[in-house]
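Continued from yesterday's entry.
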Amino acid sequence: MLSDAHYRTSTRDLRRLMDAPGMHFSATLSGDCILAVLWLVDEGGLDERLAREIWAGHRRPPGSLVAQSLSAHSGQWWSPTLRSRRISRIAVMEKYRRQGIAKQMILFEITRAKQAGLDFISVSFGYERELNDFWMACGFKVVRIGSHNDTCSGCCTLMAIFPLSPAGEHLYEAAKKQMIRDAPWLKANFPFVLEKKEESQELNEEDWRELAGFAFAHRPLSASLASLQRLLKQRCIKSACSLIHLRKYLQKHTSQSHPIGSLDFTGRKALIVCLRNEVKQAVSCLDKEKSIAWAAWVENK
């Protein structure tokens, strides 16, 4: 049934379903006939120190796909500390589709997760309008739009959550605010119109954290892109901290697939090292004391 629903289900997936901890599986039956199946996976519950190491790009433990992605590729570093459950697979027999069976199963699991004291239920999927409408109708809210297309669907990847606790609601509000604020810089990646709301593009504390993560740790360029663009807009950047290569790369070469050789670097690794050093120097020029404080936070000191 999972294969018929276009999932690339392998024997490894079946072994994980049977043997791995934190797996939940439910089915809708009519007599002896299975009409639909739903597979969920427990995620999160990690300690704060590990969550910050995931955010900084130092660690990537197995599991917790959505929780870790929000930390490693978005701005919600604390997301892996929350307890959640991810919908991994859902499938309905073809002749029983569009009868509300899947939605009822999901609503049942939402109730069960809330009773278990979880913070949110999540799902990750390749964007298609009909699929997106289904998850929104189930009450899920988008918290992340991927920067790359999903390998199966060819569409950008969306991550959505159904908040179950105040902590889950806070996570959603923080992610929503970031998406709206970053939209001017990431416009090409959004498959639908976000809520229009004027957000200040001056550097704030979230930007300082992101810039420190890029400069002093291993935050990826794609995760730090909006904060780096805001950094370039700062009028107080001195000529000695002019971010020459970063400015050229982000403003004149907006496509990350642009040949690196045009920037006089032998490879992407050398380019990233140079950009990190430029940002390190720039944040120190902007506010040395704040730069030192955020560097210490990034290094878990």
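--- second protein ---
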Amino acid sequence: MTRGKRTQAAELEVRLLREGIVESIHHVQAVVCDNRGRVLSVAGNAETATFVRSALKPFQALGVTTTGTLERYDLTDRDLAIICSSHKAAIAQVRQVFNILWRADIDPSALQCPTPAGKRSPLEYNCSGKHAGMLAVCQQRRWALNSYLQRNHPVQQLILTKVAEMLRMPAEEFICAHDDCGAPTYFMQLGQMAALYAQLASGSSLDLERIVRAMTYHPTLIAGEGEFDTEIMRLTQGELVSKAGAEGVQCIGRVGEGMGLAIKAIDGSKRAKHAVAIHLLKQMGWISPSAAETLAESFMEFGKFKRLEVLGELSLL
């Protein structure tokens, strides 16, 4: 991220109103960057750091797109979409994960993500597509399958190298921890996340362009019916690429424009990040008023008595 004269401004406030009376308040920060890493606008602090969590998945998918793994196992854009997903274990989603493993001749028992409570297989875990993609790369490269989640494993080093190259910083400077699924995740500034999504959406790389196409052509695989990422990509018909991360992280790229938005609800609130995303996308003209209204009905209104409102705006730098 390129540092400007100022990288912070007033943060956003999300209020839950019950019949017009404030019941709860969330504080949210957001940053917009271009694909050169320049901070264009901010609410809060562009240098606020947090774990990127599942918003990293489109970039973890570079392990598959840059190694010939897609071609080696005849994987499709549907397979690439499920690799980028945080799915809900719908039958079609689980079958797509299985398809990757079947084509790469990998037994599902090789998956090291957890088995969700009440489920029968790690195939049903929301990150299983990402894990299947990592295993497919290992199979194609003849790397060990049983240690693919270790930070020093070649597949994890490959992914880290790709992300470090995009952010133009040394790989050894990244702070790493394990995500809930067992895979490495990284501690990043919001400006860095926004810069990654600006590059993802810029169309400057064939690998990134294919990832965007897979996500936007198959939005139902990315999350699921009624989920934010699925609904926003469906509504905008390829104009936005969107991926959630846990603990209040949301990242969105404006396809073809080379701009990225990163959001962090400080208390980890899911509803707050969705409300801010809708508010800012409408403010910036990235979605139409009708799309904003449709999204608000699903993600900002809760029955007859409760709704969310967002106070504040992005400040231009």
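The longest helix spans residues 270-284. Residues 30 and 302 are 24 Å apart (CA to CA). Will compare against the first tomorrow.
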